[in-house]
Design a protein that fits this description.
Helix content is 37%, strand content 24%. A seven-stranded mixed sheet has the order 1-2-3-4-5-7-6, sandwiched between helices. The protein is α+β, with helices and mostly antiparallel strands. The chain has one domain (8-183): Gcn5-related N-acetyltransferase (GNAT) (Aminopeptidase, 3-Layer(aba) Sandwich). The model has no long low-confidence stretch (mean pLDDT 90).
């Protein structure tokens, strides 16, 4: 039996989003380019529209009745993928005070469940800034067989696009639904 903490993903309300902003916006890896409250409001509204259209979603991550971070999922534009279909990009952000507490794995499990079970993704990709050494190291400790894009594989165009979009080198990792099903004992 797995002893990992159980994380819940919840559609965020205004109060939770304000708390998340207050606790996280000064972090150098805050995922919202405009760190102001107005910037976050615009970013959240974009995610709400994506959710209504079926293109993506934003959830807050909760553990022990406390918001610990957030999770995003968005469908990847097929033009960036060649022959692959059903690819979604995931993103997680743990508040600085929650890092190092063993919560990365259960947050990623919750994200993968949402992507592969609820969204019926065939692949989930993560794009991580090449200078975020902590996040890159944390990914290597996860139990799933992530493929790292080397610049010549099926996610090379996506990697180039993410680097252009963010203005910095990005590393792309991909996980196939079949590999997740074969290795994750918590998919239900």
């Amino acid at each position: 039996m797995n002893q990992e903490p159980r994380v819940r993903l919840v559609t965020p309300g205004a109060r939770t989003l304000k708390t998340l902003w207050q606790l996280g916006h000064a972090d150098p890896y805050w995922p919202i380019p405009d760190c102001s409250q107005d910037g976050m409001a615009r970013w959240v509204n974009t995610w709400r529209a994506a959710s209504l259209c079926g293109w993506g979603g934003l959830w807050t991550a909760w553990y022990n009745r406390q918001v610990i971070g957030m999770v995003t999922l968005s469908r990847v534009e097929p033009a960036l993928l060649g022959n692959l279909e059903g690819v979604w990009e995931g993103g997680t952000f743990l508040l600085p005070a929650q890092r190092g507490r063993g919560l990365n794995l259960p947050v990623k499990q919750a994200m993968l469940r949402r992507a592969f079970a609820s969204r019926q993704a065939r692949w989930l990709v993560l794009a991580i800034s090449a200078d975020n050494l902590r996040a890159l190291a944390a990914l290597t400790r996860l139990p799933w067989p992530w493929q790292r894009e080397d610049g010549t594989g099926p996610f090379a165009r996506l990697q180039r696009y993410k680097s252009w979009q963010t203005g910095k080198p990005m590393v792309v990792f991909a996980l196939a639904r079949a590999h997740w099903l074969a290795t994750d004992d918590m998919q239900h």
